[in-house]
Amino acid sequence: MMRIRQVLLDQRSELEERVKKTRIVEREFLPFLDEMRKSKLMKVTTGVRRSGKSFSTYLMLRGLNFGYANFDEQILLSVSPDEILSALLEIYGREMDAIFLDEVQNLHGWELFVNKLERTGYNVFITGSNAKLLSRELATHLTGRHLQLEIYPFSFREYLRSIGFDENVETTRGMSLIKHELNNYLEKGGFPEVVVEEENPRIYLRQLYRDIIEKDVIMRYNIAYRTTFREIALTLMGNFGRYVTYNSIKRQFGLRSDHTAKNYLSYISESYLIFFINKFSFKPKEVERSPKKVYCIDPGMIRAVAMREDLGSMMENIVAVELLRRRSYWSRDMEVYYWKDYQQHEVDFVLKKGTEIRQLIQVTYASSRNEVERRELDSLLRAGELLNCRNLIVITWDYEDEESMGNRDIKFVPLWRWLLRPEIE
């Protein structure tokens, strides 16, 4: 017990020291944190490693006498949860009114422990880096008794706030400088320690990638063919913005079945490192069977690990992540798809709310109207007619205008300007 007590004390000290040294950047989800803090329900914060989950949860706990345990520490996984609770009580006494469990998915049977804490009357805060594991257990054991926030690395807006960017973007100077910063964002990405603490992005992000693959996937799922799995993960990183199927992964890497390929891709997705967007269809079976498009959680991670520098694809990846971020923070009922017909017309993103298609988005690296391919516009117009949507947008690098084509209007918006507006139009 003495050893466990010391580990918990050291963890709390390390957390507070880290917070003390960190320059606070106002994150866009702070209003939701305030809402969570006031609630008596369990607070759950999820997201990729090092995206700010622990720091944000600590902000919610200010003013409370809380106990803290981080389950990234192996020794805490070798003792019973009751021993951990006893050690926390020994440290903080009867006045401990909240408990913060960090990376709780590492603890076997964590949901039973959390349930017990809640029944005992504790105000419980948990973080985790595994999407499916947490959501499955929360749905099974804590239905309706928790609030959940999914955190992403810095958006471009948060990145600009962190560097103190205050130029007037409607001036020639402001537009030039914001495009310069967008290039920096494409290079470094949005992980807080890269942006705020100015860690070397290549070194830091490569190590973070290895930690996610090794700790959050290979060790967690006890994957037998580790070399093959690492090759699959690296291939997905290098193929962002492209199509992938379970069968293509099975054939390329000599896996035994589509089921194994599906599991491997699911494991990587659950770590928040990579995510997949489905093809839009009114038929659920077609959605499931169709190829998926793969994206990475952070542009800096792509540059550091995959070292692919296709700017058009990088733009598309940033838009994909931003759409999921907006869904998590402000539009939780929004669904994101891509669209493709049998003639290979394609639209990068379809935004759906309820039964309504709200917006169609095409992304292209274009700095003038004549650089926008006719096929991209034809696909957008065709999808607009078939899906009964009039809100059509082309996100460009540096071209802005509005144009009537057929019976629809198309807005051309530079990526930097689109990223500055968090709302879905």
TrEMBL record:
Domain AAA as annotated: residue spans: 42-160
Any matching Pfam family: DUF4143
Keywords for the protein's UniProt record, in alphabetical order: ATP-binding, Nucleotide-binding
Record SUPFAM superfamilies: P-loop containing nucleoside triphosphate hydrolases
InterPro entries on file: AAA_14 (IPR041682), DUF4143 (IPR025420), P-loop_NTPase (IPR027417)
DUF4143 domain boundaries: 214-364
Molecular function per GO: ATP binding
Top-level taxon: Archaea
Keyword Plastid among record annotations: no
Name of the protein described by the UniProt record: ATP-binding protein
